[in-house]
Amino acid sequence: MVYEITGSGALLGAVMGARAVPMFLLAPLSGVAAERWDRRRLLQGSQILAAAVSAAFGAALALGLVSVWMLFAFTVLMGAANVLDRPARLTTAFELVARADAVKAVAMNTMGFSMMRIIGPAIAGFLIASLGAAGSFFIQGLLYAAAGTMVLMVVFPARRAAAAERSALAQMLEGLRFAAHDPRTRLLVFLGALPYFLLVPVWGTLLPIYAKDIFAAGPQGLGWLLTGVGVGGTLGGLAANALAHAERQALIQAGWIVLMGAAILGLAASPTLGAALACGLVGGAAEMAHTASNMAMLQMNAPEEMRGRISSLTMLYPAMISVGAFVAGPLSDLLGVRGASVALAAGAIAAMGILYIASPQLREMRFK
Q: How far is CA 188 from CA 124, 131, 171, 282, in A?
């Protein structure tokens, strides 16, 4: 919608980048909230907020009232809903299974998201073509409301109450200090954030430009491109499951990043929509396998009482997508969408090569 309304790659990147505002401001506090407050209410609140924002934006589209500031407001509020949701969701998923099955549990969670990335974009492309963008947003709002209702079906495990004498601010600072001083956590956060800054923005920021300007495929074509990424994500979840008990998870994550970069180089060279879809499938698989491993390892490396706070660091990842969109959008205006894709992918692959040479921690880290 942003690119359709504005025709600007730079504004597309800026609107996507606005998601970073609530993520950077609220992510550390959301981790504390996941440890101190009722998780059912946090999850329900996030879905209700997302439903309300989607419905309001759909109404604005239907009435022809959408302006650029509304695009920014929608993005910021949806980012806030995600900040409320993710730490509570990840902590709960981790607590529902034994430690030995943590990677598999996180992989199944990411596969659930990937399944929706398969079904959702494919349907949305046709909804936009038949009902208009407003109709698509109304349906999105209904689905968020349904998700909030389904939280009532989850049986949440009991957990120890937070120490009454410690403030939320003290807990937040304690978690940040641990992340800053623990070398394994630092490396995992870097491995987690890098592809979300350089590579993942290609799917959200540049694929609309590929669909409209390179392949002249319209909203249906964009739906199929995003569906390819989603299908790959499901395969990536299966790959993460297969490698769940491997000890060299950090090195495996670096390998997934290189594969993501290679897939984006293939996208930049694709002569047809079908070839681009195949590259998106490979890239989506690598992205989800990397994410499942990284999120599970971060929580396994954290002390049990800090899991909510450490899992909140993963909110930096979608925030990095937004920051990366500020780079990817203008870069596409400067170099063209293919040139921007090559530059971003080459930067990520080079970073992994340098890190492998310079970091013994990456080469030697093991998890059991």
A: 34, 43, 21, 23
Place of tokens 């997508």: 321
Q: Retrieve residue 235's tokens.
A: 């395969």
For the four alpha carbons of 101, 102, 108 and 111, in that order, the dihedral sign comes to negative
43, 75, 169, 180, 302 from 176: Cα distances, Å: 23, 26, 11, 6, 12
The pair of structure tokens assigned to 191 is 């491995």
Nearest to 55 by CA among 118, 148, 162: 148
Percent of the residues in the chain that have a pLDDT greater than 90, as a whole number: 25
Domains of the chain: 2-364 (1.20.1250.20)
Reported as a pLDDT band with limits 50, 70 and 90, residue 114 is: low
Type of residue found at 150: M
Q: Which tens digits make up the pLDDT trace of 88-104?
A: 777 776 677 776 777 67
Length of the chain as a residue count: 368
Distance CA 196, CA 286 (A): 12
List alpha helices for the chain, DSSP H.
2-6, 9-17, 20-36, 39-62, 68-95, 102-150, 168-181, 183-198, 201, 207-209, 218-242, 249-269, 273-301, 307-312, 316-358, 360-364
Distance CA 245, CA 309 (A): 25
Q: How far is CA 283 from CA 45, 286, 287, 294, 360, in A?
A: 32, 5, 6, 16, 27
Name residues whose C-beta falls within 8 Å of residue 247's C-beta, 6 or more positions apart in sequence. Answer: 366, 367, 368
